[in-house]
Amino acid sequence: MKIAFTILVVLAISNASMMSKYPLQYGGKRSIMNIMVEVENKIKTHSPLDSIKGVLNSFKSAVAQEQNGHDDVYNAQKAECDSEITYRRAEVEDANGTLKIANGILKTATILLKKTQATLGETENILNTVSQHVGLINDARKEDTQSYNRGAVTFNDAINAIDDSIDLATALAKGEASLVQVADMTTKLMKSAIATKMNKVFMQAIGALAQITQEEDSTGAAERLVQLLQTLRSTVEEAWASYTAENTNALGLFSQQKDLYLASQVRLDDAKTHLSSKAENLQGTISTQTAVAQAATNKRQRNQTLWDDAADLCHSFDVEYETVTAGRRQELVLVNELERLAERRAAEQQ
User: Fold this and answer.
1) Of the candidates 62, 90, 190, 294, which lies 20 to 30 Å from 1 by C-alpha distance?
2) Nearest Cα residue to 8 out of 343, 330, 349
């Protein structure tokens, strides 16, 4: 009996060591060692078995009541833990979903921005080229207009010279013109022939005018000269009309070409405006989604940390519960063993 009780003492000390390793707030007024001492004294003094069992049952009841209270606390803690972990997991998953969407939009917007900027650059280059062409067309038309005006003056001067020659020829037929006048008019006609580049057309009239003073029939020669000059005038007028028509056609072609370039310029300006607006919107999207992605990353990190902390805390609750519950089971094992010893001692004493 002494040996059996010694073994119980060793087990009790071992259980007390476990309880000290994991400090508990349960059973602060309960001591298995005190119970063992009390039971041993009752056995020595031959106290009734019911008295001993009353002490042991009271201890068992206290252990059971304490375990029930601990179960309630643990279940509440576990429910809180499960709720917190579920919430944090959902927050992390939500952040991951938001981050995935934001990164997808960012990737697409970045690619579109690069393409838009490249297209915008090409559009600006083409627009500059078109603007240069419009400037060249304006310069060419200005030069052609000046050339036409100079040609108009030349043809007008030639017709005036021909008209003066007709008047001179009429005066010659009447004997009212001098050789000096003939020489001057010949010079004017030669200048007009060179200016209009119609030398061959002018040569016959110029030759007739130069030889008119050598003709015996000056009146008849003067009349033939008038006819030659009138024919020359008609030819020069036709050349001027043709020159004017060519200039008008050229002006139409210039205007048509300029209109085409101006229409292209308008379209390119519109495209540039549209592309600039698109690039600006894409940059805004990138800025917004970058902020969204950063916020989602922060949310994920924060909730992951809280999730890990909750998991660690809940694990500590599990360890505490299992440790304390194991200690109480060990207490009940010792109490049951004390009860068997008491029953055996009571049987021996009868």
Assistant:
1) 62
2) 330
